[in-house]
Design a protein that fits this description.
CATH architecture of one domain: Orthogonal Bundle
Distance between the termini: 34 Å
Number of strands: 2
Shape: globular
Radius of gyration: 16 Å
Largest sheet: 2 strands, antiparallel
Number of helices: 8
CATH class of one domain: Mainly Alpha
CATH topology of one domain: Cytochrome Bc1 Complex, Chain D, domain 2
CATH superfamily of one domain: Cytochrome c-like domain
Length: 162
């Protein structure tokens, strides 16, 4: 019972912190280009699948705004609460399942590398098909991952089925 209360309390704190942060429109943040972003862009370019670079850069912005609070800036997650995004079957495997998790959320414990993660993930269906494709392409090609890009057509097809 104590574990459940702690988990719920942490979840509530994360949600409050996310809502309390001022949000800038995605387009505004994407226009800001710094030397650091350019350096990161070059580093990612060598690893990214052909044609995915622009998607990865847009996805980096969405990840920063929507995902990093729970999955952390480095994709490492939070032990026993929010799963890591580093070289996992969920990230590198079936794209349809991954898109479905973004659209519908996940409200059941999952096990990754013999560790159970219990914090529910809320649906992110408010994101556009382009934002979902971009953020998943970013995740699938960062944090030590290397996988094919997710397209807006794939997101649109999964969204139509849900």
């Amino acid at each position: 019972m104590k574990k459940v209360i702690i988990t719920l309390t942490l979840s509530i704190v994360v949600v409050i912190l996310l809502w309390a942060q001022p949000k800038k429109p995605l387009a505004t943040q994407q226009k800001k280009s710094t030397t650091t972003q350019t350096k990161k862009s070059t580093a990612v370019q060598a690893k990214a699948p052909a044609g995915a670079q622009a998607s990865i850069e847009r996805g980096r912005q969405t990840y920063s705004q929507v995902c990093a609070a729970c999955h952390q800036k480095d994709g490492g997650g939070v032990p026993r609460l929010n799963p890591p995004l580093i070289k996992t079957e969920y990230v590198l495997g079936d794209k349809t399942r991954l898109i479905g998790i973004i659209l519908k959320g996940l409200n059941q414990p999952i096990e990754i590398d013999d560790e159970e993660y219990t914090n529910p993930m809320p649906p992110q269906s408010h994101l556009t098909d382009q934002q979902i494709a971009d953020v998943l392409t970013f995740v699938r090609n960062n944090f030590g991952n290397k996988a094919s890009a997710v397209t807006t057509a794939e997101v649109k097809a999964v969204r139509a089925k849900t």
